[in-house]
Structures are given as C-alpha cells and as structure tokens.
Amino acid sequence: MLATNTLQPASSGLAELLNRRCACQFLDHDLLKAQLELSPDMAGLSEEIAHSRPHLFSATMVFITPEQRAQMQAIIQAH
Fold it and tell me: pLDDT averaged over consecutive 10-residue blocks of the chain (79 residues)?
C-alpha cells in the first residue's frame, strides 16, 4: 500500500509488514533483571516493576504507526 502523496509505503502498511516479517530477538528477562539491579541503589527495582507495571517491557518488538502512537499518547495524557 502506498501513500498517495509519496513513494514511501503508508505507515500502517509498513508497521504491519515489519510486524509480520521481522526476525526480532526476544527479551531476555533474566538479563534485563540483572541490568536493572547492577547498582546496589537499584536493589528490588525489577521486582517492583514486575508487580506494579507487569507489561512495561514487551517480550518482543512491536512496530506501530504514528497514528497508533498518537492515540496511546492521548490516553496517557488523559490520565
């Protein structure tokens, strides 16, 4: 799908294509936990995040359109 005013793929089509065909790596939760707690000042941070914001880190990469990003930003600002 092409945008009518450019030769670039429309953002929704590009995001969809990237999500379908991306050979993405998955998040290593153990490595993330270790990195978050490298400093003694950060002890317990990974557990805090796991309980208070369990969906903060996605297990895999997800590509979104500028429109989806704007919708999410509007929801965040409304709260």
Answer: 46 84 85 91 92 90 91 92
Q: How far is CA 15 from CA 6, 51, 61, 69, 74, in A?
A: 17, 30, 11, 12, 20
pTM score? 0.52
Residue for token pair 């929704």: 12
Please state, in angstroms and as integers, the Cα–Cα distance from residue 7 to each residue in 19, 22, 27, 56, following that order: 21, 22, 34, 35
Question: Which one, of 57, 60, 58, lies nearest residue 22 by Cα?
Answer: 60
* Domain parsing of the chain, residue ranges: 25-78
